[in-house]
Structures
1.
Amino acid sequence: MTTHKDKLYTSVKNKIREVSQTLNLSQSVKTILRQPKNEIIVNFPVKMDNGDLKLFKGYRIQHNNVLGPFKGGLRFHPCVNLDEVKALAALMTIKCSLVDLPLGGGKGGIKFDPTKLSQAELERVTRRFVSALGSNISPVHDIPAPDVGTNAQIMVWMMDTYMNLAGPNEKHLARGIVTGKTIECGGTLGREQATGRGVVMCIEEWAKVNNVDISSLTYSVQGFGNVGSWAADALNILGAKLTAVNDHTGTIIDSSGIDVNRLRAYVKENGGVKGFDKLEERSRESFFSHQCDIMVPAALENQITEEEAEVMNMKLIAEGANGPTTPEAEKILLQKGVEFIPDVLANAGGVTVSYFEWVQNRTRDSWTEEEVNTKLRRKLQKAYKEVAELQKEQNVDMRTACYMKSIKNLENVYLQRGIFP
Ligand code: NAD
């Protein structure tokens, strides 16, 4: 029986299988894509502030590297589990191939609640995880990045640990071991905003195709962390109106418009949206049934199930999160005429700018934020246009078109390289 926990893994696996059949993919490539290349699990002890030793379980899944080094985020969350990380790693393979990055798919995580630890404990957990992973990660083999529960500070601790363990000749190239670092420690301008900004660049493409004026639209956001808050910031700049937000602390709704900048400052200070502007506490259901033009899910996977889909009615869902919509819910929403910009395209801005950071680290260069954003827009516009053309030509939904383009690209590379031995 499929449980909520392994639901994402099942749906990603099924989607890859379904599209592989439609494409009549070669049997060997089908077999390769069925499972990740490497599944690394480490159990490591960390000393807590009170002197006790606690055991942590960490994962790094390396799904596919036919296009380049494994690349993908690192999640610190109590629900992290093997199947979830496997699914997220497979999504990274699809995403990198879709937007033509010379990178493969990976993902990692540690199962714990980072909000329950002191900063000193969090630092020790992070550093001990890097040492436990050892040579399984490297700037030319597997390059982690931030995801749920991790941030630039955690990336810098990872980098510092790795650099301290590297020999003198590798030390400075070792800076590229992670992306999403602070600017001072080798990060790139625009990385923090990249995923949310990328979501909105895709929405802009959708608006062009549909002849819609974004400044006349209302939108809601689920999750007001990195992705959700920066997507809101970019939509705010374009003049759209934020009318509902849901996160792990609660739901706020204000049809006259929620102030994005003040909400960001409030969430930073209070850890969630609950209590903002003394707005009345609303139910989770009222967030999904709230009438608006666009929804940006930017929290966790499996948030939109059949139950939520039944009450939802917007023009567009732009998936900032990975796997926020179950296949059953997507079916209901497509039947209602709701359009999707699927996760593998909508949130690909994050890995794209991570790639830009990695390139700058390797070439010892630094680009302006304008350069980063111009290159990001070019990448996403090209991918969006190609996917939209394929969708029309094949008469399929947009997620299927994304997977078709991505998997076909992977197959071409495998067929040219041949299968070893
Ligand atoms: P984050 O930790 O900064 O924020 C997560 C948000 O989700 C928080 O606002 C939290 O309140 C909310 N949340 C958690 N549990 C919830 C629940 N049960 N109900 C409602 N809200 C809940 O994480 P993030 O980096 O913004 O990542 C969000 C999503 O975007 C994830 O699916 C992640 O994989 C995906 N993503 C992130 C990046 C990136 O660059 N950070 C890139 C691509 C995709």
Note: The pocket of nicotinamide-adenine-dinucleotide is lined by residues 73, 146-149, 195, 222-228, 246-248, 272, 298-300, 320-322, 347, 350 (CB under 6 Å).
2.
Amino acid sequence: MKNIYSNILKIDDKNISKAIKNLKKNATIGIPTETVYGLAGNAYSEVAVKKIYQLKKRPLKNPLIIHYHNIKDMKKDADINTNFIKLYLNFCPGPLTFVLNKKKNSKVNNLATSNLKTIAVRFPRHRVIRKVLRQLKFPLAIPSANISGGISPVSAFDVEKEFGKKIKLILNGGTSRIGIESTVIDLTKKIKILRPGAVNLRKIEEIINSKVFYSKNNKKISSPGLLRKHYSPGIPMKLNKKVSEKNSAFIIFGKNYKKTKHTFNLSKNSNLKEAAKNLYKYFRKIKEKGYKKINVVKIPNKDIGIAINDRLKRASY
Ligand code: TXA
Ligand code: MG
């Protein structure tokens, strides 16, 4: 239901049409994906792409991920290869983003790809965004719907807090199922994971039957967006803590910590998927409650825990 204070729209045919109409007019909208909520605009339009950078206050050198409904559309903009096909067949639509060589005659706006020769592409799984993409004749440039450097939104209400009335509308597709951004894999040279996510390295190695590495050079612009400080609640954060001082927020995991009014348990049952889903939700809650400091316990560094630790490290930098 739309109330007069909000531009959050429930999902029905009328509102999906409204979203599509706005995208065709090169407006930007908030849209759900299974990872986090995004700020979407026509990837072929300089007007739309510029709006995205401006709204997010994002440095122009940090390229956007281009979102497609299917391979057929995507092939017009990027060169595919065998590894891409294998991974696509296994994980897509889903939380995996591919860096590929951009086609010379691609219509994707050059600002969206920061004038690079490469392009990041993704096929999101959430039914709402798939419904929207299916009805468009252009792909969508969609970064996470937060001011650059801040916490990614995992609900329509989070997006509203970030941009309010500055965007036309936000489609309310519920809480993001995964809660952490897609895995970004570079397939253009030596295969590298640029950003860990829900699809992990082991699974990828199995599918392509070759060794895959994590990109180490976060300082350089191998993935321009992977600037070290990121995903930040803007409060000092200390990692691998066993105890927390009195008035700090304490992010815990599992059953080994005493519950107090300052504890935020990512998963009582030590379930890493549940922890990923709660991570940004708690960051936001802790920030809103006005805490001055956050302590975080050690999180197991396996499966999606690797992505959680990557975000914690950047948030604490
Ligand atoms: O899960 C997600 O991927 C979400 C949802 C909304 O789809 N999107 C997202 O977008 O996280 P964003 O803009 O917050 O992060 C995109 C990341 C950045 O780290 C950026 O540097 C990297 O992808 N990237 C984009 N194009 C690239 C390229 N050509 N080469 C290397 N990295 C690239
Ligand atoms: Mg982001």
Note: The chain is about 30% helix and 15% strand.
3.
Amino acid sequence: MKRNLIITGGAGFIGSHVVRLFVNKYPEYRILNLDKLTYAGNLANLKDVEDRPNYTFVKGDICDYESVRDLVRENRIDGIIHLAAESHVDRSIKDPFTFARTNVLGTLSLLQAAKDFWQPLGYRVDGVPCRFYHISTDEVYGALELTRPEGEAPYGDDFFTEETKYNPHSPYSAAKASSDHFVRAFHDTYGMPTIVTNCSNNYGPYQFPEKLIPLFVNNIRNRKPLPVYGKGENVRDWLYVEDHARAIDLIFHEGKVAETYNIGGFNEWKNIDIVRTLIRVTDRLLGRAEGEDDDLITFVTDRAGHDLRYAIDSTKLSRELGWKPSLQFEEGIEKTVRWYLENQEWLDQVTSGDYQKYYEQMYRNR
Ligand code: NAD
Ligand code: DAU
């Protein structure tokens, strides 16, 4: 089947993996990557697919309702996979307005643009049923108790399920929660065929080095301090990014309209244990003695409102659609550290800001 899709935020971390998967797997689709190229957007993430005939990059802001409306109409878009967002919790604490604008108003503007084109057509474009697929986070559910802090994971008795009540704590998660509500409201009010998924922490190549894993690998390599918030006891549930992208592909094509699916790998880690693992793996890959860089660990003031524990129950997704993660964490973390060490140029570009010249250069050269 031919389809015309918009993937928003495709120049970011997860979006670039989703775009790559779709461009490679579905040559018969036309894929438009709509991205504003904020500090987090980097076209170098998609160098390997940028010249493919089924792929087009569109520089644009999801908040610009009129441009998005025209883009949807002119390209007879039948599906939207929405990843564009401000995504870093620490930035949201400093600048909550930007998060409300992009994550809430940006999502609303996309929904409205899609509705304008789709509703009069009965939510079918040229015979293809429409889909608005919104990518959200486990952080909307709030924080779980740490009832078993010692020993092996799981570190508590409860998990986030699709029925867990929303209880966001940071401006980031509050904005994401609000956007999820708008998506569901568009289904309930206008019949928009929506799907929402809530995923746990992703890791892997092309993640902006403000997030824990790439930041710490880069710092270990450069022997810079590793700022662990609080006592490092907070727990996150980690999933390899390509497994998230595979889940998105499966759910976009086979998920049920109006449903929510949680995505996660039952893979809880305390931050301090992740940090020690990163040091061990990075040291070994750099030919240093394993643990040589343990003294870089620096406990710093905790993040305000820091959620204690996230743990996703993704049973529904496995049971109903047969998804399961493909990589064990040990394998995924080794692959990830190796990628950052072998892609020093990418890391240097994003840490210096040079990557933002890539787009200008790319278009000047055409
Ligand atoms: P990211 O910060 O790496 O990328 C975000 C992308 O969105 C960038 O390319 C940026 O340029 C683009 N963007 C930002 N504002 C825009 C705007 N106004 N218009 C158009 N494009 C804009 O984010 P990520 O970590 O890849 O996360 C992607 C999505 O997945 C987000 O919605 C996030 O909430 C969600 N999510 C992330 C994780 C995670 O661990 N990273 C986990 C669960 C869910
Ligand atoms: O759970 C999904 C979420 O995961 C996504 O929705 C977010 O977009 C994504 O950024 C991520 O949020 P976190 O806040 O969990 O990720 P981050 O990498 O910023 O931090 C992971 C943990 O490490 C968290 O407990 C805070 C801690 N941390 C982070 C940084 C950057 C530190 O201790 N030191 C640091 O310098």
Note: The mean pLDDT is 96.
